[in-house]
Amino acid sequence: MALVDTLRRLGRWVAAGWRTLTSVVGLLVDRVWPGPGVDPHTRVQFRAIADAVVPETPTLAADLGPEAVPGALAIDLDEFAITYVDDGFQLGLPYLGPQGNVPLADPIAHLLDAAALTLLDRGENEADPDPNRAFSLLGPDDPPPEVVADAVGPFAELSRRDRLRAIGLLDDLELGITPTEGDLFELDGGLVGQLVVGFVEMIYYSEWEGYDEFTQPPSERVHRNDPRDVQSWRQTGFPGFAPGYAALRGYVGLDGSGLGDGDTWTTIDDDAGVRIVRESGSFRENEYDTSGYVEPFPVEGD
After folding, report:
1. Residue 96 near residue 224, CB atoms below 8 Å
2. What pLDDT sits at residue 7?
3. 147: Cβ–Cβ under 8 A, 6 or more apart, which residues?
4. Helix or strand or coil: residue 44?
5. Is pLDDT above 70 for 40?
6. What is the C-alpha separation between 276 and 36, in angstroms, rounded?
7. What global pTM score does this model have?
8. Is the pLDDT confidence value at 258 over 70?
9. Do the beta carbons of residue 253 and residue 276 sit within 8 Å?
């Protein structure tokens, strides 16, 4: 029943959103908002995602310095995520889009609103929704709040913690649709949560920001490999690419374990006898008594 109720709410919200976007205000927003082809509602939603997953952290400035303050919105990670989600997923359905791509950013944005409504219906939100949270995501070049108001959904009105709670509810959603005859498209809502959280985290701490043009083929991209060009590198102290980072340096050796052998390359913990050594060593039988072990499941057929 929870799934049915969620889908009903999603249908009502999509219908309302369609009426809004075809209104005069919706047309105005569509014209003044930068980024051709991107629904204003979708843009606000992905900003809300980026703001919740990698937020600004001004309280860290005193201990870690001002470079630790900016979050994902400072480097427009929301725009990158929309582009990547819409253009980068090959689903093998060439008649539905270029190279079989199915634009997913807009459906994901509406799905997050359905999750937000479910969170509110269950009373599991810690803070009341507030449209000012969505308006705070706007930049100086965006339309004013009174113009964008109709493009704001319930997900963007939640607090950061409640947005993450709403995303967590998608773990309970499973959906199967047939976009064309003979095709079955199955959606596990948990994958959406992994995408909008895990993907944003991974990209933020990657080398992405340092490329001159990420949308070019890999062989044509240029990366300056300068930590000053990548916000997450500055925040984490990563020095950039260097030969040998991915090379095998040795094997973990623990005194008396036989796990590693040979010359010591470096010592990890002198007191515990943990070292990185040149050779793999050899394993030995453990000393546990397993004579009374009983296999919980039958290993042979009837």
Report:
1. no
2. 46
3. 25, 28, 29, 32
4. helix
5. yes
6. 54
7. 0.67
8. no
9. yes
3-class SS of residue 186: strand
Task: In whole angstroms, give the CA distance from residue 58 to residue 152.
Answer: 26
β-bridge mates for residue 181, sequence order: none
Give 90's contacts (C-beta < 8 A, 6+ positions apart): 99, 100, 101
Measure Cα distances from 22 to 26, 146, 147, 207, 294 in Å: 6, 17, 14, 39, 67
What distance in Å separates the CA atoms of residue 47 and residue 42, rounded to the nearest whole number?
9
Which has more confidence, 116 or 32?
A: 116
> Which residue, 135, 131, 107, is CA-closest to 47?
135
Break the chain down into helix, strand, coil percent, rounded to 5: 50, 10, 40
Distances, alpha carbon 211 to alpha carbons 78, 200, 220, 297, in Å? 17, 17, 10, 53
Q: What is the distance between the alpha carbons of residues 172 and 1, in angstroms, rounded to a whole number?
A: 11
pLDDT of residue 26: 37
- Give 101's contacts (C-beta < 8 A, 6+ positions apart): 86, 87, 88, 89, 90, 91
Task: Give the Cα separation of 116 and 109 in Å (integer).
Answer: 11
